[in-house]
Amino acid sequence: MNRVHIKTYGCQMNERDSEAVAALLRARGYRMVADEDNCDILLLNTCSVRDAAEQKAIGKAGYLSARKQRQPDFILGILGCMAQNRGAELLDRLPDVDLIVGTQKFHQVPDYLDNLRAAQAAGAPVGSTIVDIAEEPGSQNTIRDHVLEERQVSAFVSIQQGCNMDCAFCIVPKTRGDERSRPMDEIVRECEELAARGVREVTLLGQIVTSYGRRDYGHAGGVSPFVQLLERVNAIPGIRRVRFTSPHPRGFKDDLIQAYGRLEKLCEYVHLPLQSGSDRILRAMNRPYSRERYRQIVEALRAVRPDMYFSTDVIVGFPGETEEDFAQTRELFEACNYDMAYVFKYSIRSGTPAATMADQVPEAVKEERNQVLLGLLERNSKRRNALLVGTTQEVLVDGPDRRGRSFMGRTRGNRIVHFEGSERLIGELVPVTIERASTAVLYGSLAGVGVES
User: How far apart are CA 313 and CA 311, in angstroms?
Assistant: First the structure.
């Protein structure tokens, strides 16, 4: 009765949280299983960024509740942002849930499961659901353990939790709490341990990753704590590539922009959330930058790295967004020449300032604007990928693709590449000549002297 399956919804931070919980459970003697039908304990690590994400998790939990009627010892838990956002009120719709754990209590999951299983073993009747969504100082330091697959090449490293930005549309400050950073030495040590275990690429994670350490460390020679951390991770011998997400445009000062020109392992790929290209809407969103400042950041990064790749987040249909506002967003979206974008229709999140704003945009208008940007993105991604045909790209080899027919890896610009290779190349940086391209994937063959498949 110790088989656990964790189903994760939402962002990369949720993926990292789930992995840390899995590592803690393994250390306690639990067995992680990939098939939810073969588990005794199922944990849903949830997202609250959009209402649709919450409803999806609630629907899944409701479906799983029926399983408890067939298997009385089956344990069902809800973790993460939705648990933090809704707490005990979830029991009104999901009375059979055994465990509700918020974002600052992931490290308590093994103890809570031990308690639930001990009660079952003693033949005790089903008791009250365990609900823990309290804040806990230092909880950001508990997301440090990893479960690595055999020959895993890349890993996420959580460096910061919480957010102090208070964007009008966003519920993250409520679900993740105030900004809290981990000690720099601990992060570097974690990256060194990952390198010793064969990881070659790390992605530093935070709600506002560029705000890392601003309360805990001073600037050194005009260099922010976040860039100081990048410098230290860049210096780790076994690490070959460094990425980070998710930043805020406000964090792109000159020291970070120049870091792309001097830190050889920092990949020329930037996720730079736009949200809107209208100054009026940006002010309503409480986003502290203008469209002109955003464009300046993009131009400055491309001046340092002409081959820079960009992805972004955009919200269409924010309350009060007019056709002119959307036209400005579309114009800036095209001008920035994105390689990838996450385009969202505005979703009301109860408890945020935007939820009660006047001039809510009709769903049909949101959908139309959403499709316009998605169409632009598809055409641009195709064009950008086509430009790579005939070039030779450095690829970090992840391993066989899902079908096992070829090998795959990623370029420094975060493009997926498929090519013929062999097991011995996993974890290596190899040159691949790109021969054809689709919207999302590149195809090629190994190139260069001394590179054998």
Answer: 7
Please give the structure tokens belonging to residue 352.
């945020």
Total domains, the chain? 4
Residue 104 lies in a domain: yes
pLDDT by residue for the chain (453 residues), tens only, comes to 799 999 999 999 999 999 999 999 999 999 999 999 999 999 999 999 888 889 999 999 999 988 988 898 999 999 999 999 999 999 999 999 999 999 999 999 999 999 999 988 877 655 579 999 999 999 999 999 999 998 999 999 999 999 999 999 999 999 999 999 999 999 999 999 999 999 999 999 999 999 999 999 999 888 999 999 999 999 999 999 999 999 999 999 999 999 999 999 999 999 999 999 999 999 999 999 999 999 999 999 999 999 999 999 999 999 999 999 999 999 999 999 999 999 999 999 988 999 999 999 999 999 999 999 999 999 999 999 999 999 999 999 999 988 877 999 999 999 999 999 999 999 999 999 999 999 889 999 999 755 555
User: Whole-angstrom Cα distance, residue 183 to residue 159?
Assistant: 8
Q: Which of 267, 282, 317 is the last residue of a domain?
A: 267
Phi, then psi, of 351 in degrees rounded to 5: 95, -5
Q: Residue 284: which H helix or E strand, with range? A: helix 279-285
Indicate whether 263 belongs to any domain: yes
Q: How far apart are CA 426 and CA 264, in angstroms?
A: 21
In Å, how far are 50, 121, 248, 377 from 413, measured between CA atoms? 28, 52, 19, 16
Coil, helix or strand for 431?
A: strand
**Residues whose CB falls within 8 Å of the CB of residue 92, separated by 6 or more in sequence, listed in order:** none
- The strand pair at 201-205 and 180-181 is best described as unpaired
Task: Kindly state the tokens that stand for 259.
Answer: 């870091």
Last residue of a domain, one of 249, 267, 285: 267
Contacts of 334 (CB under 8 A, 6+ apart): 376, 380
66 and 120 inside one domain: yes
Co-location of 70 and 174 in the same domain: no
Is 272 contained in some domain? no
Conformational region of residue 312, where left means phi above 0, alpha means psi within -120 to 50, and beta covers everything else: beta
Task: Confirm whether 137 is domain-assigned.
Answer: no
CA separation for the pair 432, 395 (Å, rounded):
7
Residues 406 and 374 in one domain: no
Q: State whether 371 and 402 are in the same domain.
A: no
